[in-house]
Structures are given as C-alpha cells and as structure tokens.
Automatic annotation (TrEMBL):
Gene Ontology CC annotations of this record: plasma membrane
Residue ranges of domain ELMO in the record: 388-544
UniProt cross-references to PANTHER family, sorted A to Z: CED-12 (PTHR12771:SF56), ENGULFMENT AND CELL MOTILITY (PTHR12771)
Organism this protein belongs to: Oikopleura dioica
Signal peptide (residue range): none
Protein name, UniProt field: ELMO domain-containing protein
Superkingdom of origin organism: Eukaryota
Protein's GO biological process: actin filament organization; cell motility
Cited function: Involved in cytoskeletal rearrangements required for phagocytosis of apoptotic cells and cell motility. Acts in association with DOCK1 and CRK. Was initially proposed to be required in complex with DOCK1 to activate Rac Rho small GTPases. May enhance the guanine nucleotide exchange factor (GEF) activity of DOCK1.
Sequence segments annotated as region (Disordered): 1-30
Pfam families on file: ELMO_CED12, PH_12
C-alpha cells in the first residue's frame, strides 16, 4: 500500500471560502476546518487485465464481462472516545470514476464529514511531485491518476475565477490607498492570478468570463509595474490554446508596440524575466499575425536592438533573442530580403557569443541560425539555373574573366563552347559553382592560372573546370546536409559558419584544389572524370572525420588523404565500377529498385509493429506509446505520464485508422504545430527528432499529434513507414535510401554471378551463315 497522503486544503479563515496561493502552497498535511480528518491514504488501482499484478489491496471489479476500475482510498481519522481518549480509525472506500465529477465531490465531502459546505463551491485537485491541477471528468475517466498522487479538496474554479475578477475590477478601493499601497494591492492580486494561471481549467473559465479584457484594461501605470506577471499570465493563456495573439490585439491594438518599447528601454540588470517574456510574446505574435511579422522584420533591419540582445550578458536573453531572429529569418518573404551585410553582422554577433561563453547551453538554436543563414545566403544561387538572358549572371561571368585578365570565357576554361557558357550551370546546384569560381579566381588567381596553362598545353589531360566546380559544390552541399531539416552542429559546420563572410567559398577552394591535385597525380583524361570524383568524395569524407576547427586544418586533412593514399582502395573496386555502370546493368538495377524498395518498406512496417515510446512535444511530462497493427490497419496510441512504470496494453489505448490519417510531417515542418500549443515552445527542440501525424477525428475536423523520438533511426522508421502506408509519393529518408541501395547492390551481385563464366564474343557471325527462322515464325502480309 502506498504511503502517499490524499489530503484536503481549506482556507485558514473558515468564513472565507476562497483559497489563497499560500493555502495552495501548503504541503496538505493539515486540515484547517475539519478537525476530525487527519490523513487519507491513496494507492494506485491495478488493471484487471493484468492478472499477475492483482493483489488483495485492489478495488477493481469485473461486471458483465467488462473491466471497471475504481479509485481506492483509505481514510484515516483521529476520533475521541467517551473517556476523552484519542484513537485512530481507518476505513477503506472506493470512488467510482464513472459517476459525474459533482457526485464524486459530494461523496468525498461526505467521507470527510464536511457536509456543511455546499459541494458546488468545492473541487478536487490532483497534486503530483511536479504539478497541481484541477481534476476534470476526462482525467477521472481516462484512468490517469497515478501512484504517488495527492488529492486536495479546495475552492471550485468557477468560484475562484469570480473572486479574482472581483478583485481585479475593484477600482473604488484605489481612492483610499496611497501610491505605494496601490502597487502592493495589484502586486498581491496579480500574484494570485499568476499562481492559478498554471491550471488550464482555471484559465478556461477565466477566459470565458471575459477575464482577458479585464486583465488588459488595468491602468497602464499599474500594468507596467507588474508587467512581468501579466506577460507570464498571457503566455499561459496562449500555451493552453485558449486565446490567439490577435485576441490580445483586439483588446489592446498597441500591445506589440508596447513590447518593442520594453525591448528597447529595459536592461537585463534587473529585468531578465520581463525581457525574456517580452521576446517570447513577440515570437508568438510573429507566427500568428502577419502585421506583427512586418513590425519585427522592420525592427531587425532598421534597429540594432536585436543585435544587441543577441550579445546580451544574460544567456537566457541571448537564447530568446536568437530564437526570435531565427523565426524572423525563417518566415521572411521574397519581398523581405535580408542583405548580406546584415546577415554577416548577425553571424558575427552569434560567433562572438560562442567564443565568449565557450558554448551556448542550447546548441540547437545556434545550429538553426546556421542552417537559415546558409539557406538565405546561397539558396537563391542554387535555385537559379544558368540563363543566357540574365544580366546578373552575365556580369558574374565577366567578373571571372576580369579577375584572370583574360579576353573571354573560352580562354578561361580552354575549350570551345557550342552553347552559351551559362548553359553549363543548368544543374541541380544552379549557379552557385559560378559564384564560387568567381571567388576562386579572385583569391586564388595563381592557382587558377596554373590550371588554365595546363589546359592549354595538355588537350587530352585538360582539367574540366566547370564540371569540376559543379561536382565540388554538390559534394560540399551534401557534406553540409544543406537542404535537409537536420540541425547543423558539427565542427565542420561551425567552420563554414566561421568568422569570414566567404567561409563557404574558401572551403570550396580547398576541395577544388584537392580535385585538381588528384587529377594531375592520376594523369587523368576526360574518361577518368567519374573515377577521380569517387576518389575526391572519399578524400573529403575521410578529412571530415578528423578535427576541422580551422580551414588550414581541413586543407591538411585533404593533403594527408591524397590521391596516392586512396588509389589502391579505389582500384579494388575498379572492375566492379565498370561493370555496374554498364548500360544493361543499369537497366536491370532500375527494374529491381521498385521490388527492393517494397522489401525495405515492409521491414519498416515490421519494426513499427513493436511498441515504441515517444515524448509528447507539447507536454514533456507525457510519454506516448505507439504500435502498428498491420492486419487491422490501425495504430494503437496510449499516453502515459512520465512516472508510468507499467507495460503498454492495447486495451487502454486509442486506435487511429490508417484511412483517417491525412498527413505526416517531419523536421522543421512540425515547427508551426509545436508552437501552437507547446509550453516548452520557447525552448529549442531538436527538429531532426520530431514528427507529427494529422488524422481525422470527425467529419471536417482533424487533430495533430506531435511526437519526439529518442533517436533519428526511430523517427525515420515511423515517418517512412507511415508515408508508405498512406500510399503517397514521398522523398525517403537517408536511412531508407541507404538500405535500398545496399540491398540493391547485393541483389545485383547475385544476378551478375550467373554471367561470370559466359564469354561474350567480340565478333559476330555474318547473317548469311545463320540458320533461317522456322516458317511458322514468318507472318505474310499478302
């Protein structure tokens, strides 16, 4: 039997039926009104479906073939006998959660011999080690009252809200108070509201009784002196999805301007929490109201305040400011371009903060900025294909020629072009290679002239400058995981994100020169281009496994993993490469790919049939257990608290049919879903581990469940598996692609074994020497 007390809390003054925060903060071991009650003991009910756990202490029952659970309580009362002696009396009771909440409250009050107070003014509160909240009908019927909980009997939320609103509206008392007393008066009343706003039941009733309007109508001077409390309360309403930011603006149109003024005027010396709440609310408004986005974008471009806050001495302000900047940049539109100078300035601020602090506590926030920074600075180049009509691209070509003091583009690449040179950049990486070549021709002019001289004297061994630049940029983007939702956080990514505004171009130059060195060492010709590329990929891969804290270190790693050290390993696979790249083999590979992909997807579904545990992205204290039932075409989902120690059971789980699933989100796509209602929204989440499932709950209504996996393998397994079940075309994860390629290689090698001993003739017999076909094969057209 558990020794956790199930006790009641009542007001200190029996005449006052409203609990103050001080009353609620009591340990709950005293009863101020009911002298006959000392303690109630609570033990967790055991599910009847688990016979091995049944004990004589359970109060479960089974009626009509159905399982019923009840809350077992043991009431321990101190009583006085006829002789005046105290004695303890224990009685066991069970509360039936199938009854209405009002009935249970009345029953508890009767157990406590507290019939004197009307049950409508009382409510039950559930207290755990981490929180205290009102018990609702849903909580009772969902069997989520865990072992170790404490039950409190307190003022009903409806009565409590009415009392708080009365205090907030009691303006006539201000005339009788001095200035300091007014501040104390509002400080006390807002403190009460702040304490109660942690409970969603209280908040819901507060909003329905027009509490938001009353809160925002408090006198401006009073409001400023207690602004931190008001902002915290507003964030609680937003986090509970009871209001939107636009609801605040409807009652106070100048609210955003007020927040921006606080951001400009306050310092972090004594207003850290106020500044943090201000930035958090601005971020929330940024996501929900387009007009707020315009205001904050203007603030970022025209005011130094956000730049200053990123370098604030307080880490919490730094982090909140950085996340606000991330949101601004991520949500910027095409007509809201961020200049490179401003981006580089922001990058320098963040880099200085990293050096100053050694490392920010929240690495993911910095990683997110890096990814957004690279996207804003280079994505336009990647998405722009070579266009002969583009004046800007023609000017970029002219810069390369001018840097090398050449007459035209052909003299730079030492070959004749049948088409316009910009057509050479109609690849998946766009004109980014051209931009990198412009930087290379400017900063590494001597190396560039050496390559051009080689091309002029060795026609067969001519180094394909443009093709090499395209391949190097592809390798660089792949190593950065540039287009994915992965958060950039490695040393290599910090190197690209480094002090120089052209770090990306400098890394390109290092890899490009390594390519040229390998080409020269191999005495390669155009037919060897793909083989040298394979060596370069291995060279870059090995160089990244070592320390790369500086560009010089990266160049040193490339030199150590040179062509000569890798060529022996490359030659081992030379014969296989030639065979695998044969046209006929490629056709067989494409034929097998669909079959192999189906096998890998089936493997993912098998893994999903095992129970997996996830964290609820909107509630850190809840775990979500999920399992696929492939035969029934549904997913079993069970939500448990973080204190849950039992095993997953399908009987207590809800089932979501595959046909009712609408969409599966992954990575950064889930950001908007999490921000809508997560209390930890302001803390950075590793979006590489997040996915969301949107499913239909009723006609025209849908619900989105956002989950955080324990590792990348789990999230990729579930996302790939769910998308394959939905039957939609999707871009597979890297792990699924790798498994498909690996299995495809094995299948291909098995099939090629049959051809090992077959000698394919080089010369074929003349047609005349062949036997004529059978007559029945000939079709007459007469």
């Amino acid at each position: 039997m558990s020794k956790n007390t199930l006790s009641i809390v009542t007001p200190k003054d029996p005449k006052n039926e409203i609990l103050t925060p001080n009353d609620l903060n009591k340990s709950g071991k005293q009863s101020h009104t009911f002298s006959n009650l000392k303690f109630l003991y609570f033990f967790r009910n055991i599910d009847i479906s688990a016979p091995s756990l049944i004990s004589t202490e359970t109060l479960n029952s089974e009626k009509d073939g159905e399982n019923h659970y009840s809350i077992g309580v043991l009431v321990k009362m101190d009583k006085i006998d006829k002789n005046g002696k105290k004695f303890s009396k224990e009685e066991a009771y069970k509360l039936d959660p199938s009854k209405s909440l009002d009935e249970i409250v009345a029953e508890v009050m009767e157990l406590l011999e507290a019939e004197g107070t009307h049950e409508k003014s009382r409510a039950l509160l559930l207290e755990t080690q981490d929180s205290r909240k009102y018990i609702t009908e849903e909580l009772l019927k969902s069997n989520r009252i865990d072992k170790g909980s404490t039950l409190l009997l307190g003022t009903s939320p409806d009565r409590l809200v009415s009392h708080i609103l009365k205090l907030l509206q009691k303006r006539e008392s201000e005339a009788e108070l001095q200035r300091g007393e007014i501040a104390d008066y509002w400080h006390q009343n807002l403190s009460y509201l702040l304490a109660y706003s942690e409970d969603v039941v209280f908040n819901r009733i507060f909003i329905t009784k027009n509490g938001l309007k009353i809160l925002l109508s408090i006198d401006k001077n009073v409001q400023e002196s207690n602004f931190q409390k008001i902002l915290t309360i507003l964030m609680a309403f937003l986090d509970d999805n009871l209001i939107d930011y636009k609801d605040i603006l409807n009652h106070n149109p100048e609210f955003t301007e007020m927040l921006i003024n606080i951001l400009n005027e306050r310092t972090s010396n004594g207003d850290v929490k106020l500044l943090q709440k201000t930035i958090n609310l601005l971020e929330r408004g940024l996501q929900e109201v387009p007009a707020v986005r315009v205001q904050i974008f203007k603030l970022l471009n025209e005011s130094p305040i956000l730049h200053t806050r990123i370098s604030d001495k307080d880490e919490n302000i730094q982090l909140a400011s950085l996340m606000l900047v991330n949101s601004v940049l991520f949500m910027s539109r095409d007509n809201e371009q961020i200049e490179n100078a401003l981006l580089n300035k922001l990058k320098q601020r963040i880099f200085n903060s990293l050096i100053k602090l050694g490392r920010l506590r929240e690495e993911n926030a910095v990683g997110t900025f890096q990814r957004i920074y690279l996207k804003l600075k280079y994505e336009k180049d990647i998405t722009s294909r070579g266009d002969a009509q583009s004046v800007a691209q023609q000017q970029l070509l002219a810069k390369v020629v001018k840097n090398l003091e050449k007459d035209n583009w052909e003299s730079v690449i030492s070959r004749n072009l049948s088409d316009h040179p910009l057509f050479e950049f109609q690849t998946s990486v766009g004109i980014l290679p051209l931009r990198c070549l412009e930087s290379f021709s400017r900063k590494h002019r001597d190396d560039c002239m050496t390559i051009i001289t080689n091309n002029a004297t060795r026609h067969k061994g001519m180094f394909p400058i443009v093709a090499a630049a395209n391949e190097v940029v592809s390798i660089l983007i792949s190593s950065l995981d540039f287009k994915s939702d992965q958060i950039i956080s490695s040393e290599y990514h910090e190197l690209v994100f480094g002090i120089s505004s052209e770090s990306f171009e400098e890394i390109f130059a290092a890899i490009f020169l390594a390519f040229w060195t390998s080409w020269r060492d191999a005495k390669a010709v155009m037919a060897d281009f793909k083989k040298v590329i394979n060596v370069l990929k291995e060279q870059v891969k090995l160089s990244l496994t070592a320390t790369v804290s500086t560009i010089q270190q990266f160049k040193k790693n490339l030199a150590q993993n040179n062509y000569h050290s890798l060529v022996e390993a490359q030659n081992i696979f030379k014969g296989d490469e030639d065979l695998e790249n044969h046209k006929s083999v490629l056709l067989v590979k494409e034929h097998l790919r669909k079959e192999v992909k189906k096998v890998v997807e089936e493997n993912r579904l098998m893994l999903m049939e095992r129970t997996c545990k996830f964290t609820d992205a909107n509630n850190k204290k809840s775990f979500v257990y999920m399992r696929l039932d492939k035969s029934r075409r549904h997913i079993s989902i069970d939500t448990k608290s973080s204190t849950f120690e039992g095993a997953f059971t399908s009987s207590s789980a809800k089932h979501v049919q595959i046909r009712n699933m609408l969409k599966v989100y992954q990575g950064i796509e889930t950001k908007a879903v999490i921000d809508k209602g997560a209390k930890q929204k302001r803390k950075m989440i590793d979006y590489s581990l997040v996915f969301a499932i949107q499913h239909k709950v009723a006609e025209g209504e849908s619900q989105t469940m956002t989950l955080v996996a324990e590792n990348a393998t789990t999230v990729n397994t579930w996302v790939d598996g769910l998308k394959s079940l939905l039957g939609v075309s999707f871009f597979p994860s890297e792990s699924l692609t790798a498994d498909v390629e690996h299995l495809l290689q094995l299948r291909l090698k098995i099939q090629l074994i049959d051809f090992q001993e077959i000698q394919i003739p080089t010369n074929f017999k003349p047609i005349e020497s062949l036997q004529p076909p059978p007559k029945e094969w000939i079709y007459s057209t007469y």
